């Protein structure tokens, strides 16, 4: 390849089949984790930490705060914030 061909190849958008495999490998799909799942995980983590003999009160306090925060968010999502409007 000449220098001009190399430059043209580099500047060209990555629509080639050669590059599609490497692009697909880099795509990471993330799904939103529900507040309920997070709350349950923190509760289990807190139970585990309380069973450890080397657990620190600071760690326990932090984990309790995180558990409480997720529980509040879970409750706020379960509540209906507005009544649906039904015209008569």
Automatic annotation (TrEMBL):
<feature type="compositionally biased region" description="Acidic residues">
    <location>
        <begin position="16"/>
        <end position="28"/>
    </location>
</feature>
<protein>
    <recommendedName>
        <fullName>Jerky-like</fullName>
    </recommendedName>
</protein>
<feature type="region of interest" description="Disordered">
    <location>
        <begin position="1"/>
        <end position="32"/>
    </location>
</feature>
């Amino acid at each position: 390849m000449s220098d001009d061909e190399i430059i043209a190849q580099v500047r060209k958008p990555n629509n080639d089949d050669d590059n599609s495999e490497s692009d697909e490998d880099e795509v990471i799909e993330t799904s939103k984790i529900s507040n309920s799942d997070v709350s349950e995980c923190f509760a289990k983590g807190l139970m585990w930490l309380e069973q450890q003999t080397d657990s620190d009160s600071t760690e326990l306090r932090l984990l309790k705060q995180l558990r409480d925060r997720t529980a509040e968010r879970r409750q706020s999502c379960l509540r209906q914030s507005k009544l649906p409007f039904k015209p008569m």
